[in-house]
Specification:
Elements (H helix, E strand, L loop, with lengths): L20 E14 L2 E8 L2 E7 L4 H9 L5 E10 L12 E12 L16 H6 L1 H4 L3 H23 L3 E2 L16 E4 L7 E4 L4 H9 L4 E9 L11 E10 L3 H20 L7 E4 H8 L18 E3 L10 H8 L3 E7 L6 H13 L6 E5 L5 E2 L8 H10 L7 E7 L1 H18 L10 E5 L4 E4 L4 E4 L20 H6 L4 E6 L2 E8 L4 H10 L4 H15 L6 E7 H9 L29 H7 L7
Parallel strand pairs: 3-5, 6-9, 11-17
Antiparallel strand pairs: 1-2, 1-4, 2-3, 4-5, 7-8, 9-10, 10-22, 12-13, 13-16, 14-15, 14-16, 17-20, 18-19, 20-21, 21-22
Helix pairs in contact: 4-6, 4-15, 7-11, 13-14
Bound molecules: aspartic acid (ASP).
Length: 595
């Protein structure tokens, strides 16, 4: 098809181009009819430029009359200064006085108007994703994503990493989530799995001596999706040999620093590091958002006051302490805390399984308002006040019970208070390394230990002695060379120093209840590889979509992905998953049970 090709993009022309004759190609984004004079916005990836068609241009006027939104056109004319300048767009000083207009393709009336302030439902936007992708905000997300790819590739190349593609069709080797399975036609009754991550391959690449591996890759997990998860997502996957945890932290931090510098112009400070145990006792969650602050500027932290309230007259605390439990609390500074607010918060903790919420309200006039004053001496109350560094005008909320439950519930309360009282500074970036995670967790349903991260994570040396124990407390006390990087309350990176010794690997398999036979069937090849000189190694997987969402200021990862799936793991645009023909199933030797 012959058409007049563009000389410029729709985002390019400025006043300095006045009087030039130009051609633009793009989509009609808006048409206004001002008494026979048409003003039309033409859109492409680069921006929007207005052109006008006057009624005396009889040759093209009839075409302009026909134009509808999303028609694809080519327009030629002279760049002129606009009478009414549009300060909202970079091309707003000029317009094109059209002399030639070609309709390259028509468009039906679109199911929703392509506009930045989109009115369509999420479902409609996903069904017609190509229309949604015409919106600048989404295009810009994809462009930013592309910039970050380039920074990542360059960064790792500079540090001697080798980008290596690992298979998409692989052996089903459970890593924690459920595998997506792919039936084999050649080997009927056998299946490939899609990788949950390239974990095993990257470790084998270390055995091969590749030393530094990286890949921006897709990972697939067939889970019932929680909010803001995708069945397939992108990970920056890396692995290094002959390294310690600190070497990996430096490498990952360096990457984030380059991304933030180039994209945001921000010099990130050195990332903070805390152990899992400290993070849990301080924030009650293993991915704390450190941007939550009290109005006095201090971080909102959980304070353990078990020792402080010991020996009080309060039976509830005494019983908990006698049972080995914890009394702890959280401070809300300088906020007006009404009865109604306290009732609301009490309801909140009741849903978490507590009988009630203790509180001490330190009034401005120096008095203390609390049902606890009946049971706690003035001295204990003063000590609690000082433990929280509370001032008059502050309120302290207290929970008591089993340690982990108290911690996680105060963690949830901390987030709720931050939401209710707007204590989250949404503008900043807070990175935190969380280290020393537990190696195993006891799964009450399955009645067995499961790996907290994955089965290739190494225990810290000082806990090796518990690898043969089956005592729940001892086993759960084992800490691992395992770490997460948390950014603004999101776990964006996770990794570990791996086991590289087949004997230790076998002990871990034993712990999670894998028989020798099962271990051989599922992981035999990696155990075999480990027999031939596996170097000490470790690495991380970095959640790429989430990093982009944070950089774009988005709460959800959906709009950082060109073609995302719904919470039900389907794609509304191409209607997948879908049924296949009987012939296809026959070739695979598969019969679908009626559902
Ligand atoms: N494969 C791990 C994951 O996807 C990351 C790692 O340990 O490197 O969580």
């Amino acid at each position: 098809m012959n058409f007049t090709k563009r000389t410029h993009t729709c985002g390019e022309l400025r006043l300095t181009d006045e009087n030039k004759t130009v051609t633009l190609n793009g989509w009609v984004s808006k048409k206004r009819d001002l008494g026979g004079l048409f003003f039309i916005d033409l859109r492409d990836r680069y921006g929007i430029t207005q052109f006008k068609v006057a009624p005396d241009k009889t040759e093209i006027y009839d075409k302009a009359l026909k134009l509808g939104n999303e028609f694809v056109i080519s327009v030629t004319g002279k760049v002129i200064k606009r009478e009414s300048i549009n300060k909202n767009i970079p091309t707003g000083d000029i317009e094109i006085d059209a002399d030639k207009l070609e309709i390259l393709n028509e468009s039906e009336i679109t199911p929703f108007v392509v506009e930045e302030d989109v009115k369509a439902s999420d479902e409609l936007r996903l069904k017609y994703r190509y229309l949604d992708l015409r919106r600048k905000t989404i295009t810009d997300n994809l462009i930013l994503r592309n910039k970050v790819y380039q920074i990542v590739h360059k960064y790792f190349a500079k540090h001697d990493f080798v980008e290596i593609e690992t298979p998409i069709l692989m052996k089903s080797t459970p890593e924690g989530a459920r595998d997506y399975l792919v039936p084999s036609r050649v080997h009927k009754g056998k299946f490939y799995a899609l990788p949950q991550s390239p974990q095993i391959y990257k470790q084998i690449l270390m055995v091969s001596g590749l030393d530094r591996y990286v890949q921006i890759c897709k990972c697939f997990r067939d889970e019932d999706l929680r909010a803001d998860r995708q069945p397939e997502f992108t990970q920056i996957d890396m692995e290094m040999s002959f390294v310690t945890q600190e070497d990996i932290f430096d490498m990952v931090e360096g990457m984030f620093k380059e991304i933030w510098k180039e994209i945001k112009g921000i010099d990130l400070p050195k990332f903070r590091i805390m152990t899992y145990d400290d993070v849990m006792s301080t924030y009650g969650i293993d991915k704390p958002d450190l941007r939550i602050r009290c109005t006095d500027g201090n971080e909102m932290k959980i304070i353990n006051i078990t020792e402080t309230v010991k020996g009080s007259e309060f039976k509830v605390f005494n019983d908990v302490i006698a049972d080995g439990g914890t009394v702890a609390g959280i401070k809300l500074s300088t906020q007006e805390v009404s009865r109604k607010i306290i009732d609301g918060l009490t309801e909140f903790v009741k849903k978490l399984g507590f009988g009630g919420l203790g509180y001490l309200k330190f009034n401005i006039d120096g008095t203390v308002q609390s049902p606890l004053t009946k049971f706690l001496s003035e001295e204990i109350i003063a000590n609690v006040k000082s433990a929280f560094e509370a001032n008059d005008g502050d309120t302290v909320f207290i929970l008591s019970g089993e340690k982990k439950k108290v911690q996680t519930s105060l963690g949830a309360l901390r987030i709720k208070l931050a939401e209710d009282f707007k204590l989250l500074d949404e503008t900043g970036y807070e990175f935190l390394w969380v280290t020393d995670f537990p190696l195993f967790q006891y799964d009450e349903e399955e009645k067995r230990f499961v790996a907290e991260h994955h089965v290739f994570t190494s225990p810290k040396d000082e806990y090796l002695k518990f690898l043969d124990s089956r005592d729940k407390d001892e086993v759960e006390s084992i800490r691992a060379n395992c770490y997460d990087l948390v950014l603004n309350g999101h776990e964006i990176t996770s990794g570990s120093i791996r086991i590289h010794n087949p004997v230790m690997q076998k002990k871990v398999f034993d712990m999670i209840g894998l028989t020798d036979e099962e271990a051989k069937m599922k992981f035999g090849f990696i155990l075999e590889a480990f027999k031939y000189g596996a170097p000490p190694h470790g690495g991380v997987g970095i959640g790429f979509d989430r990093v982009i969402a944070v950089l774009c200021g988005l709460k959800s990862i959906t709009d950082t992905i060109a073609f995302p799936k719904t919470l039900k793991a389907s794609s509304l645009m191409d209607d997948c998953p879908s049924e296949v023909t009987k012939e296809q199933l026959d070739e695979l030797g598969i019969q679908v049970k009626s559902v």
